[in-house]
Amino acid sequence: MPQYRLRFFERLQKTLKEIDIELDIFYGETPLEWRARNDSFTPTFAQQLPTRYIKVGGRHLIFKSVRTILERHYDLIILEQAIRNLETYALLLHPKTKRKIAYWGHGQTFTVHKKSSEEALKTRLTKNSVWFFGYTQAGVDAVVASGYPQPKTTVVQNSIDTAALKRDLASVTDTQIQRFSNLHGLTRGLTGIYIGGLDAAKRIGTLLETAQLIHSKVPNFRLIIAGDGDQAGMVGDWARDHQWAVTLGPIFGSEKALALRSADFMLNPGRVGLTAVDSLTSGLPMLTTNWPFHAPEFSYLTNGDTAVVSDDNPTSLADEAAALMAAPEELARMSAACVRDSAQYTTEAMVMRFVHGIQGALKTKT
User: Fold this and answer.
1) From CA 101, how far away is CA 366, in angstroms rounded?
2) What CA–CA distance (Å, rounded) separates 98 from 82?
3) What gap in Å lies between CA 272 and CA 293, rounded to an integer?
């Protein structure tokens, strides 16, 4: 299970128990394309399902064994809205579970080119459910536009545990920041940070190219890269040749908070998803591009207020970064705007939305 989901599922399970709703949580093995990120966790409050990967063409289909689920009686089963999860079809067709299915997910394809056949299948699956939990308003709008009844939807407002992140950020001292900055040769006001997976989906090559262009314009610019993935080796080799960049590997908790407090803005020309919440909570404006394949949470950011969204090329993004570093008052204004907007995105609010949706789904007649 991804680290960032732990608090949500713990709180959801506890909150539902308080109103006499029992929640069992099942999860599969880490998807093959994410294993190198090293950001998964084995929770004690959930059960892992045996998982098989079946390669078809250039992608992997996933099948999680649902025998344990079929052995129990559930009034509602909530599944990921993902057409490559083969267990979905098994559960839909089984007489014990038919018409007791709900989905949570993006609502539409955001992060890759849409294929009409796949979107049609996703729409058909969703229409055969009793409820839809959308990550964001845009996802719910998409399923409603396809004919799904709006009263049977919940906007989850996908988030991370911002309360814990805020506590960690507040616990970082000025002395710690100074030591960290001295250790890595960081420059106050001129330090960017990338935090996330180091793989193709995040356009790491574009990140490195953009960073080099920024450094050529602003020689005191520094870059922190935190994360792991199948391109970590390439990033490490590149950082050794560019001494103004530092790589930290995957970081969590207080280590993550220290790195964020030591930076001035986020730099991510690739896919922006839940890092938008990191950006807002830490008060670090996001510098990115208008690449069309951002994740749904990209909508949490506002260009010119909490983010700088350039044209989709390294030169434009580097120009915007140099301009922002040359305007400390504007950087401070945007930082304050991030903190202001961060209040909207919390695990606690996400849990309560999910609880209300589950209550609605349980009351829905099939």
Assistant:
1) 10
2) 17
3) 9
Sequence-ordered alpha helix ranges (H) in the chain: 6-18, 67-70, 87-93, 116-127, 137-145, 162-171, 174-184, 204-217, 232-241, 253-261, 275-282, 314-325, 328-342, 347-363
pTM equals: 0.91
Residue with tokens 């939807």: 153
Tokens describing residue 326: 């040359």
**pLDDT, tens digit (0-9, with 9 covering 90-100), for 47-56:** 999 999 988 8
Tokens coding 121: 């299948």
Calculated CA dihedral for residues 171, 232, 268, 189, nearest 10 degrees:
50
pLDDT tens-place string over residues 143-156 = 999 999 999 999 99
Closest alpha carbon to 186 in 237, 224, 241, 242: 224
> Cα–Cα–Cα angle for 46, 51, 53, nearest 5°?
145
